[in-house]
Amino acid sequence: MDLVQKEHDRLLKRLKASQGINNVQATIDLLQSARDTIAADPNQAAVTLAKLQNPVKASLNSINDSLKETHSGLNKYTKSLDKLFKDRPLPSTEHDALSEQEHLINRAIAMHLLREGQFSVAATFLSEIAEKKAFMQNHQSSPASPEQATSLLDLDEVPSPEIRKEFASMYYILSQLKEKKNLLPAIEWSCENREALEARGSNLEFELCRLQFVWLYHGESEPGQNAPGNWRAAMAYAKREFHAFIPRYLREVQQLMGAMAFCPNLQDSPYSSIFNNSTVWDDVAQFFTREFCSLLGLSADSPLYIAATAGAIALPTLLKLQTIMKAKRTEWTSENELPVEISLPPSYLFHSIFVCPVSKEQATDANPPMMMPCGHVIAEESLKRLSKGSRFKCPYCPSESHMKDARKVFL
Amino acid sequence: MAAELTSIKLNPESHLILDQPLLRLPHELARRNFKTVQRVVEREKEYVLPALKEAANASLSNTHTPDQTLAALDAMISRMQGLKRKMQSLQEEEKKIQTQSRKRIQHLETLHKIPSLADVKYDQWSRVRLDRLLVDHMLRSGYSESASQLAKERDVEDLVDLEVFTQCQRVVESLQRGETKEALQWCGENKAALKKSQHNLEFELRLQQYIEMVRTQDQSKKIDAINHARKYLVSYQDPDSKEIQRAAGMLVFAQDTRAEPYKTFFSQDRWRFLSDLFVKTHHELLSLPSQPLLHIALSAGLSALKTPLCHSAYTSSSSNSQSTTTSVCPICSTELNELARKMPYAHHSKSYVEGDPIVLPNGRVYGKARLMDISKNVGSVESGKIKDPTTGEVFGEDEMKKVYIM
């Protein structure tokens, strides 16, 4: 990369110093002055023109020289690029499984744009898709395969207006929360979805209300110079709202009330961390986004972003694999599984993984993990192979059991 | 721990696989630009020098009047001035390309300063990359308006090639409308580079013009067609003689013929073939990959993330939307689920489960701490009881059983 940068710097310098146009101008000047001389004295024509030959030739040649220099600069830069990307070709394009699923990709992109709050881009994108679809239908020359026609007509390929509305309201709430520190829309939303949130064991509503309490306590002014009025507002809010939380969050409410006893010297109290937490707004915003998306059955971060990033991380390994396989002329033995392990950062692991310790295969629906009475888990196929229909010893401990005693577990 | 450290290591050089076209494309443009400069300079040089010599000889032998000499000089001056103008505009172009290249190099350079994949800066960088990939995908699919809007809002205009793709798209659209003019013009502009191309785009375009003339079944048009074939097609005689014989044979068939290969010749699908061929040639010339980069990144990413649980008939205990302590897996999320269905899943050689796993009477496995945490937060569960966050069943705490996963 350093080399590329250096060569590019050099190329730029050369371009700046390039005399090409000046040389052209010099040629023009030569011709012009010769013309003036001849116009003034036509008798001089033959001499002037004869004298002109060599200088014009020289200045035209110097244009070529400066071009040559630029050319060598360009070539050096090409070489540095080649060197940087040597051994790193883009993966071969023989099989692009995704190109058949264009509409699914477009749907994912539209959802991603909505998630990121790019509503106007999303709208343009959707309308351009619709336009193209209409165009394709008009130009369907031969009555193309009915399959294709239905997939084009499939309305499910774009996010429904409801989803769009949901994301719009999510962005409204988030912008209120982040920019204006206005928690009320968020509290209202969590109140409306109280049952669903509670079933998830989510304490979003309480977190929001607690933050509202803290915010009221601090008031608009700088923390530290709290007017008693703000304290009163917070207490009034607590009296009005907190009783609903007491059964579940007794301890937390008690903490907040206890903290009030230290007012106005909260900084030095044991409760100061609750009241002076700089990241609390970002945390709450993130918490809210996660809960909101989860209720829609969606992941909190854009899946497209995670997948594309994971792809970039995985590509070097996959490319290496491709070259090795080509060199050794082997093929994948397991069709549904990648042949190499790709180490992604821990935050990219979302599911528990069960690899059978006996067969070293990953558990699937057809070959689920089974727990023996001793508590050890192996895959069903391994279990069958070990037991052969009779009692057998667990491969990990001395206990013996029967095939029918093993139970399927869900990770 | 060691595994964790290697898995977040960032190797910037090998991480740039997806970013080759970012530098390659402007460089190809710069080279093309340079060749144009070379060509115009050469052309003017070949005119001015002989002309000057001739004028000198003529005035020596007194065959030219002074006025004629002056006129010859004027012609030379105006041609040189034309050259200067052309060079100036090409230099402007060059400057624009190189400033863009510079910004791109700087963008890639920032990756070298990011210590690890877990860094916040990597997150930002990767988001910019995703925006770039999205714009690339949109441009290739012909959604230019969305692409330019997204590029503008995300401020990545210097990192994407709006102009190149918009021009390409214009030609594609003209071909889809059944016009060859713009495509032929493009061929003219890139004549030198096309000689190396293995696709015979220009021949196919000329052949299409011929087909359209024959299609009319009008006698005078057919004569035009023959002339057209003599002028343009025969120059390709050698590699395509079979094609030319077929083209000649076409003259006796009408467009509703069922005889091959004439049926294919007359088919409207040939226009789609032409536009695909154009795109292929165009991308090859500018060293652009033939498939969208987003597809490359996604197909690798989907597989790397996918587990057998993502398309399982049973809801996974470790990641589902019913529980607050886990986030929904991106492959399970509706956006990508269908897309990933046909992809292979990632290979793992070791089990990976939450710490201190326990099993409930219904067979569900959870980390003990997480399960206790959830049950505490769910209001409706009495103490001493736990709630399965996936199924909603309630069990006694004593019903949890330790499970050993190796």
Secondary-structure map with pairings?
The complex is a heterodimer of chains A (about 400) and B (about 400).
Chain A: H1 2-17, H2 20-40, H3 45-84, H4 102-115, H5 119-138, H6 146-153, H7 161-180, H8 184-192, H9 194-199, H10 204-218, H11 228-241, H12 246-260, H13 272-275, H14 280-295, H15 303-328, E1 337-341, E2 369-371, E3 377-379, H16 380-387, E4 392-393, E5 400-401, E6 407-408
Antiparallel strand pairs in A: 2-3, 2-6, 4-5
Chain B: H1 2-7, H2 12-15, H3 20-60, H4 66-112, H5 120-141, H6 144-153, H7 162-176, H8 181-189, H9 191-196, H10 201-215, H11 219-233, H12 237-249, H13 262-266, H14 269-285, H15 293-305, H16 334-340, E1 345-347, E2 357-359, E3 365-367, H17 368-377, E4 385-387, E5 394-396, E6 401-402
Antiparallel strand pairs in B: 2-3, 2-6, 4-5
Number of helices of chain A: 16
Radius of gyration of chain B: 33 Å
Structural class of chain B: mainly alpha
Which chains have the largest interface? A-B, 146 and 157 residues
The first-to-last residue Cα distance of chain B is: 18 Å
Helix content of chain A: 55-70%
Number of strands of chain B: 6
The main sheet of chain A orders its strands as 3-2-6
Low-confidence stretches of chain B: none
Profile the largest sheet of chain A. 3 strands, antiparallel
The total count of strands of chain A amounts to: 6
Shape of chain A: extended
Strand content of chain A: under 5%
Number of spatially distinct domains of chain B: 4
Spell out the helices and strands of chain A N to C: HHHHHHHHHHHHHHHEEEHEEE
